[in-house]
Design a protein that fits this description.
binds zinc ion, 16 strands, Rossmann fold, 344 residues, seven-stranded mixed sheet, Quinone Oxidoreductase, Chain A, domain 1, alpha/beta, 28% helix
């Protein structure tokens, strides 16, 4: 079978590779992959960020945002059947470590990931532990089902802390997950959704997905612009996706006193933060990592199944798996939001 793999260390090094079709072992399932999305994590692997390099052995088939059809069950797998359509939770959790036992499996001490620690879903087939499969209704299109994993992060970010209902929300950074968070915040009852991103394609898409305002933080002073549309109060919750130090500071400065600051995208390097300002303004700082397993999936999937959130505007390209490397290039050029790869 074909795979799209990281084959060499350093920048780039993405190539089509040939593999034997993998077999499902005990407790595992094999999916015939129908659709798989390229994610920011795949881009970090492309750029060979140190935190990825530490975890990976090459060559490795990439891809962890996937929808497929179960075509083989390993021994001891209950509750799933051949022919089931499933998305995958990308965190392979052990179920026995301290965080797992404390209902924090998303923070498992032994977390593995398809496409990082085992071969992933940019391939004709992928084998994974059965306990990360989330069955979907068969009428859900595979390209939408492949986006449930990142959508889960967006919903997780909207549900933590004070939530979003009845509140003014800043979505700072409108990559695919930020865009999904715009739509999730709207669907979950936010009073006002303000989006910020320097990229015009992302701003337009944010407005299409329900943002009341799309600000360019390189053209306006963001906290002041937000003050103007919130009667000088700032937002009740700022959700930071940009991963940029200035984005972090803008988001922090845009929160009303005692509001929420939720961090999804962390800056790559340590940065300076004025803790006196934090003490005076008292935002509650919450980190968002992955999805709560399975609570977030239970909260997120009805929004999609019932048509209350439409993820289609995020899916900027559909490419055959054999042209997957182009998807990476389109993202680097700022010309793509989420490319979805389709094995033929
Ligand atoms: Zn991802
Ligand atoms: Zn664990």
């Amino acid at each position: 079978m074909k795979g799209l793999s990281k084959v060499s260390v350093g920048e780039g090094g993405i190539a089509l590779t040939q593999h034997a079709v993998p077999e499902a072992g005990p407790g595992e399932i094999r999916l015939k992959v129908a659709a798989a999305g390229i994610c920011g994590t795949d881009m970090q692997i492309y750029h060979w960020a140190p935190r990825m390099a530490r975890k990976m052995q090459l060559p490795r088939i990439l891809g962890h945002e996937v929808s497929g059809v179960i075509d083989q069950l390993g021994t001891g797998v209950d509750g799933l059947s051949i022919g089931d359509h499933v998305s995958l939770e990308s965190h392979i959790y052990c179920g026995t470590c301290y965080p797992c036992m404390r209902d924090r499996a998303h923070l498992c001490e032994k977390t593995g990931y398809p496409g990082i620690t085992i071969n992933g879903a940019f391939a004709d087939y992928v084998v994974v532990p059965a306990n990360i499969a989330w069955p979907n209704p068969k009428e859900l299109p595979h390209e939408i089902a492949a986006m449930l994993e990142p959508f889960g992060i967006a919903v997780h970010a909207c549900m933590e802390g004070s939530g979003v209902a009845g509140q003014r929300i800043l979505i700072n950074g409108c990559g695919p997950i930020g865009l999904m968070a715009v739509a999730a915040a709207r669907a979950l009852g936010a009073e006002q959704v303000i989006a910020s991103d320097p990229n015009p394609l992302r701003r337009t898409t944010a407005e299409q997905m329900g943002a009341d305002y799309g600000f360019d933080p390189t053209a306006v002073e963001l906290p002041a612009a937000i003050g103007e549309v919130t009667n000088g109060n700032g937002v009740d919750a700022a959700i930071e996706f940009s991963g940029q130090p200035q984005g972090f500071l803008n988001a922090m400065a845009s929160v009303t006193k005692g509001g929420d600051f939720r961090l999804v995208g962390a800056p790559a390097h340590p940065m300076e933060l004025d803790l006196t300002q934090w003490l005076l303004r008292c935002p509650r700082i919450i980190n968002i990592h992955g999805r709560r397993i399975w609570k977030t999936w239970e909260q997120a999937t009805p929004l999609i199944y019932q048509g209350r959130v439409d993820l289609r505007p995020v899916m900027s390209h559909q490419l055959p798996l054999s042209e997957g490397a182009r998807g990476f290039e389109l993202i680097i050029q700022g010309a793509a939001l989420k490319p979805i790869l389709l094995p033929q």
